[in-house]
Amino acid sequence: SSRQELEVIHEIPLYRPFVEKWAQVESFQARPDDLLISTYPKSGTTWISEIVDMIYNNGDEEKCKRDAIFNRVPFMEMSCPGLLSGTEQLDTVPSHRVYTITHLPVQLLPVSFWEQDCKMIYLARNAKDVAVSYYHFYQMAKMHPDPGTWDEFLGKFMAGKVAYGSWYDHVKGWWEKKKAYRILYMFYEDMKKDPKREIEKVLQFLGKDLKEEVVNKILHHTSFQEMKKNPTANYEMMPTWAMDHSVSPFMRKGMSGDWKNYFTVAQNEIFDAHYKEQMKGSTFKCQMEI
Ligand code: A3P
Asked: Complex ipTM, two decimals?
């Protein structure tokens, strides 16, 4: 089945070049020692991946950079014509595969991840900052259709008519799963506030113990300023037809609360009311007021 069929059945739009080989994704065989990183787009995927990579490389920046160029595993649901798909690449990686990344909503994750009880890190970011970041990403990353005006895009975001669907369903779906599976559920806002504490949480979750100086090195290497100038992390190696950083850099602002520069008072009121409705009945909480 193809991306188009998938979208019709599940009503979840997906990135244009992704998921042409859905059957491969569906039947993907996870291994018990696989680590999965899952996020809704624009929630800090690149950031948490860099942290995990640095942890597995014991703070060796050069190894981490080589990893990023040669064998950083792409999105598992990625499949572009003419390239090895994400799952094909994963199949060639010997155990222990460091990690794999996905933006899939919980109901579309290949079942083998649940069956194998893999460890998973889910990173969430507040909806308003995600919407702003996503709007800029839609403009610079050419795999997206034209987002229209900010107001139009915000409407689409709220309606879940953006790639990977509803933010609300995504964060809630993974939040529910953490009750029964080994999911470390993290927040971008916590990482901004106290990155060292959050890195230590990841270490504990992975059962890794690193010296204080190594942790400090990871902290420095994964700061926004460092990642913004790191060519293996800032996506500047992408050709301009795929990502145009002159429209908006991938490493844009890296802050919490930028939404205040974009939401009008009226948009904010409508958004808050809709948010309340969407999140009704869920114990999920994130920090919006920063
Ligand atoms: P902004 O557009 O708000 O700046 P993803 O990797 O999921 O696509 O998320 C990208 C967002 O994470 C961008 O947000 C980017 O700037 C931010 N980001 C990337 N690395 C970061 C870091 N080290 N610290 C803080 N934010 C970071």
From this structure: 0.99
